[in-house]
Design brief:
38% of the residues lie in helices and 17% in strands. The protein is α/β, with parallel strands linked by helices. The two termini are 24 Å apart. It binds 3-phosphoglyceric acid.
């Protein structure tokens, strides 16, 4: 049984060791494809794989077609918008994620980016504090909950909007639930995005919504770049000199944003919310265990293409 770890952005070396250990114990072979630059390398590596562990790596119909033995793909992480679920289902390939395993890492980065913004990108000028500021958490899943927990330590006033999470769950964390995204953006100077990229959410963070934010607004995006309407974000930042956009997912129009809004826009060069030793270990080991459990016991608990 061959398990391919295909990670354009590699796990920490210790995480790879731990994944291999889990697979070795189950008499499964580990094949490692890291930092590949060409899809052809993935197609070639996938050809005799029974299982694949990925991160943001794209598994589309072409990759699935190149892997005739493939039974399962596990996305070591939360979002699975990088996998063609319909194509996988058509080929009877089970797709899973590992929810919650990297969420603290992403949440810590979101708060780190808020501090970076509040302190004027550490340029030496007098900044502001997060204490007492209103934070809006857009989607209250695993990452959103961790953001709330950490933001509480900063003394922020915390609000959340989630179309699917019952308000009792949000209230239990002493976070104020709001009834709509519009209300969240109107209420909060800081908004932290944690929505997945779906047909409904793509391009949904637009001029009209962002323009509801109060003065000195800061939008933090550690979710997905696809949810932002980038052209309208530029338009908004042109009309709102008080507005900052901070992200760890480089937008398509990064050059334009950098040129126009140097001290109000920041993106890390690589998506790095989940890039910690702990998150790599947690998500990687969970992925390996799920693969073993699938082949040995038929467990499909974390399947997302039902
Ligand atoms: C996720 O969906 O789990 C995060 O966005 C992390 O993605 P990554 O594994 O590519 O860093």
């Amino acid at each position: 049984m061959k398990v391919l770890i295909a990670t354009e952005k590699p796990f920490a070396p210790d995480a790879v060791k731990s994944i291999k250990q889990v697979l070795d114990n189950a008499q499964m072979e580990t094949v490692l494809l890291e930092k590949y630059s060409d899809k052809a390398q993935l197609l070639d590596a996938a050809k005799d794989a029974d299982a694949i562990i990925i991160r943001s790596d794209v598994i589309d119909a072409e990759v699935l077609a190149a892997a005739p033995k493939l039974k399962i793909v596990v996305r070591a992480g939360a979002g699975y918008d990088n996998v063609d679920l319909d194509a996988a289902t058509a080929r009877k390939v089970v797709v899973m994620n590992t929810p919650g395993q990297n969420s603290n890492a992403v949440a810590e980065l979101a708060l780190g980016l808020m501090v970076y913004s509040a302190r004027n990108f550490y340029d030496g000028s007098s900044g502001t504090e997060l204490k007492g500021k209103r934070l809006g958490i857009h989607a209250y899943g695993n990452v959103g909950r961790n953001v709330a927990r950490i933001a509480k330590g900063f003394g922020m006033e915390i609000y959340a909007y989630d179309a699917f999470c019952p308000s009792e769950v949000i209230e239990k964390d002493e976070v104020t639930p709001l009834a709509s995204a519009e209300e969240l953006y109107e209420t909060c100077q800081y908004v932290s995005l944690h929505i997945p990229a779906t047909d409904e959410t793509k391009n949904s963070i637009n001029y009209a919504l962002l323009n509801r934010m109060p003065k000195k607004a800061v939008l933090i995006n550690t979710a997905r770049k696809e949810v932002i309407n980038e052209a309208e974000l530029v338009q908004l930042m042109e009309t709102r000199p008080d507005f900052k956009y901070i992200t760890d997912i480089m937008p398509k129009n990064h050059e334009e944003l950098t040129a126009k809004f140097a001290n109000r826009y920041f993106s890390t060069p690589k998506k790095m919310g989940a890039q910690t030793a702990e998150a790599n270990n947690n998500a990687g080991i969970a992925a390996a265990n799920q693969i073993v459990d699938f082949f040995v016991n038929g467990n499909t608990k974390f399947q997302v293409n039902l």
